[in-house]
Amino acid sequence: MDEAPVIDVRGLTKRFGGRTVVDAVDLSVARGRICGFLGPNGSGKTTTLRMICGLLIPDAGEGTVLGFDMRRQRSAIKARVGYMTQKFGLFSDLTIAENLEFFARVHGLDRRGERVDEALERLGLSSRSGQLAGSLSGGWKQRLALAACVLHEPEILLLDEPTAGVDPQARREFWEQIHDLAARGMTVLVSTHYMDEAERCHEIAYIAYGRMLARGTIEEVVAASHLHALQGEGRLEDGRGADRLAAEIEQRPGVAMAAPFGAAIHVCGPDAQALRDAVAPWADRIAWRETKPSLEDVFIHLMRGAEDRSVAVR
Amino acid sequence: MIQPQSLQRILAMIFKEIRQMTRDPGTVGMMLAMPLVQLMIFGFAINNDPRGLPLTVELNDASPFARSVDAALRNTGYFKVTRVVSAPGEGEQLLARGEVQFVVTVPVDFGRDLVRGRRPQLLLTADATDPAATGNALAAVEQAVAGAMVHDLIGPLAIRQQGPSPVEVVVHRSYNPEGITSHNTVPGLLAVVLSMTMVMLTALSVTREVEQGTMENLLATPLRPVEVMVGKIVPYLIIGVVQMAVILMAAHFVFRVPFMGSIALTLFATLLFMVTSLALGFTLSTVAKSQLQAMQMSFFYMLPSILLSGFAFPYRGMPQWAQIGAEVLPTTHFVRLVRGIMLKGWTLADAAGEMGVLALMLAVLGTVAVRRYQDTVA
Questions:
Q1: CA distance, residue B374 to nearest chain A CA (Å)
Q2: 35-64 of A, contacting B, C-beta below 8 A
Q3: pLDDT tens, B225-272?
Q4: B370 to chain A, minimum CA–CA distance in Å?
Q5: Among residues B373, B360, B354, B361, which one has the least CA distance to residue B99?
Q6: Dihedral angle at the C-alpha atoms of A214, A220, A226, A227, nearest 10 degrees?
Q7: Domain ranges for chain A
Q8: Which of A73, B91, B299, B375 could form a disulfide with B103 if both were Cys (CB 3.0 to 4.6 A apart)?
Q9: What is the pLDDT of residues B158-196, one digit of tens each?
Q10: Which residue segments constitute the domains of chain B, with CATH numbers given?
Q11: What architecture does CATH give domain A228-292?
Q12: pTM
């Protein structure tokens, strides 16, 4: 597998009115991989996706997508990439079939009728093909949007928060479809806020305040964070649960974060010993055990670190 | 009696609405500018009794009487004598091209016939395509000529003032001899209807894509900006062609508007105007941030197009600043074109000037639209 990565960009930078939204982001993704793109709201995920699919021209940085120069060969990229926007971007006043047919035409596909029928079949929407797209529920809209952007069999699929507001059942089916597509060689870059979805990805990229803060498989990202975590369970003297301690413990030195976890409490920090010392005052009533830091721990930790740095710069 | 809680809730709505309004300064600005523009147009620009209309005297007689007719016409205030020509038929050509509104033809031997009491004829030819533009002026002519004669026929010639007027003023209303208003308005309506639908439809349709988020999807496909533009324009062109057919048929069969020029030239000019209007609509859509703004901008364009283009009120009755403003509007040029071709029988050579202006506008607007309409989202 020494094939060149299908997405290979370096130093991507985009500014909007003096504000740097994406700051020197490097990203490379190999063929057939599903890369989860995570980060807080406004961290530059959408802007990065738009630069990769040719909808925005970076202010700095360069790279190739499927071997095409992302600045000069944007139309070649557009023809081979499927991009699903965050907001439902199909035509509400066209029927399901008409929407699919439109995208089939735009991409100049042969056997249009057959392809549209196949897509409808796969979607399970054959019987409702005459229904207006705008009348579909959220989950169906999302499935239709996906069907529309894979109609031309793109080599890369860019999905911008595709499952926001979609029920768990539909989300699961959606991810099964994504894995099917990846198994057939499609490369997927999907932005999401859901940790369970991040865990369904082969690899993740974490971006905050426009900067890439972590990259790799989940294990790699967790290991690279050098975080340690403790889980505490038990009751305090006044009968309150351990979860009520979160605010107090978080103030202690050596604690990066403390968060209630049902009736339990989840604490993490960069140094194992310092963390043990920090929770020592409650050791008699609460049982502390070591646990694996979660992806969420890592992200919040990274985000706070980035926040501090960005404040320091000003 | 309004309950206090209800008042509270109404106030909440009022504050919200006002805040939202101020977030959209363009819309508020246009709302405030609209009455000003209307005041300017209705208060100053529109004039149903136009004065200073261009008139050419075709002087085929060198007698002092002819000169004093000329002077008397100037003194009415209704006319501005722009040229004095002496070649027969030249005045007619100026009238056809729309350079002057009136031609006074002083016949050969006018002075001699006058002195001899032969009641010479003074021919006044008016471009009566717009009856409103000529009505009052025509009435003033007879009086002015009579006045001039009172002044001139003195001494022994005073005897000529007895009996019927010493000069017979023959008025010839060209292009619309019966002074039927619809002959003028129906062709003009073609201009107004087309600019209304073409500009507004395009301006709205593009902003709608942006507002609904479908534009991002379109731009992510291999569709190029020009392709999106052409694809959007063609269906509207079809609508425009249907509108044109309806109006032209109604003009012919219902209103019996004379059709002097060639149909092919009319179609060609109309097509040119439609494309120019579509390009304008596209340009507006690249500026407008919402469908509401696009709608307002179209209205802002429509108002002067109807009022200043010469469609509703005589162009020559307007002060110069309004005339200059009207020259910028494609509708003004198309109103002239369609009236010229239909009522005056303009040929391609006659129409070339106005069509050239439209083509120039199309080139400018098209360039602006394509440049502003990018294949990126920001």
A1: 10
A2: 50, 53-57
A3: 888 888 988 999 999 999 999 999 999 999 999 889 999 999 999 999
A4: 17
A5: B354
A6: 90
A7: 7-221, 228-292
A8: B91
A9: 766 666 678 888 888 888 888 888 888 888 899 999 998
A10: 53-174 (3.40.1710.10), 181-372 (no CATH)
A11: 2-Layer Sandwich (3.30)
A12: 0.81
